[in-house]
Amino acid sequence: MRIVPLGASEIRVAALIHKEAFGFEAWDERAIADLLAMPGAVGRLVVDPTIGPPEPLGFMLLLFVAEDAELLTVAVRPGARRQGIATSLMADFFQLAHQRKATNAFLEVAADNVPAQRLYARLGFLVEGTRRDYYKRPGNKRVAAHLLRRPIA
Ligand SMILES: CC(C)(COP(=O)(O)OP(=O)(O)OC[C@H]1O[C@@H](n2cnc3c(N)ncnc32)[C@H](O)[C@@H]1OP(=O)(O)O)[C@@H](O)C(=O)NCCC(=O)NCCS
């Protein structure tokens, strides 16, 4: 497994991975391209380089603004989950944040997303606040977003 920069030519596969992960709430190619064009935005892609052309397994989008490092999204292909890929991406995030002299990492996670909440809790993130009715769910339902923070050592 290797983590490489996510450039313009990987936006299509990133949108496919996002669709698999988030369904109707997923970001399309245009949305991902717009985010990556923001000052301070960084994309990272995980590839499996062992067989043939490197196969994308997951990605994350980050935003660095002054001393804040924000995880905008992270997604791993369903068939590649529970193998430590998100954990490796998060380690890469913390390393980039440290290099950029960020003092805190931030992210938002849906109140019903237990896998992601466990991942972040294991990495030392703590809940700093909650936004009610933040994410859409089928059937006109909404769930809250928890705002999480972790200091960058
Ligand atoms: C959340 C997600 C990124 C985790 O990716 P992953 O590569 O499977 O995560 P890891 O293998 O690094 O898991 C690390 C730890 O997180 C927790 N975790 C991950 N998936 C879990 C699950 N389905 N159920 C419970 N805990 C889970 C576990 O503590 C796990 O450690 P363990 O496997 O030793 O028990 C992945 O499930 C995903 O892409 N989900 C859809 C998109 C999403 O929700 N992104 C986060 C938005 S905030």
Protein architecture, described:
The chain has 153 residues and is an alpha+beta fold. The protein has a single domain (2-151), classed as Gcn5-related N-acetyltransferase (GNAT) (Aminopeptidase, 3-Layer(aba) Sandwich), CATH 3.40.630. The chain has 4 helices and 7 strands; from the N terminus they run E-H-H-E-E-E-H-E-H-E-E. The protein has helices at residues 11-22, 29-36, 85-99, 114-122, and strands spanning 2-5, 41-48, 55-65, 68-76, 104-110, 126-137, 141-151. Strand 4 (68-76), helix 3 and strand 5 (104-110) form a beta-alpha-beta unit. It is globular, with a radius of gyration of 15 Å. It binds coenzyme A. Residues 21, 74-76, 81-87, 109, 113-116, 118-119, 122 line the site of coenzyme A (COA).
Helix-strand layout with pairing:
Elements (H helix, E strand, L loop, with lengths): L1 E4 L5 H12 L6 H8 L4 E8 L6 E11 L2 E9 L8 H15 L4 E7 L3 H9 L3 E12 L3 E11 L2
Parallel strand pairs: 4-5
Antiparallel strand pairs: 1-2, 2-3, 3-4, 5-7, 6-7
Bound molecules: coenzyme A.
Helix content: 25-40%
Our measurement of the CA-to-CA distance between the termini, rounded to an integer number of angstroms, reads: 25 Å
Taking Cα atoms only, what radius of gyration do you get, to the nearest Å? 15 Å
The total of beta strands comes to 7
Instruction: Tell the overall outline.
Output: globular
Average of the residue pLDDT scores: 96
- Ligand set: coenzyme A
Individual helix count: 4
Query: What's the CATH topology label?
Result: Aminopeptidase
Number of domains: 1
**N-to-C SSE string, H for helix and E for strand:** EHHEEEHEHEE
Low-confidence stretches: none
**CATH top-level class:** Alpha Beta
Query: Strand content of the residues, in percent?
Result: 35-45%
**Largest sheet descriptor:** 7 strands, mixed
Question: Can you tell me the CATH architecture?
Answer: 3-Layer(aba) Sandwich
What do we call the CATH homologous superfamily?
Gcn5-related N-acetyltransferase (GNAT)
Instruction: Order the strands across the largest sheet as they lie in space.
Output: 1-2-3-4-5-7-6
Derived from helix and strand composition plus strand pairing, the structural class reads alpha+beta
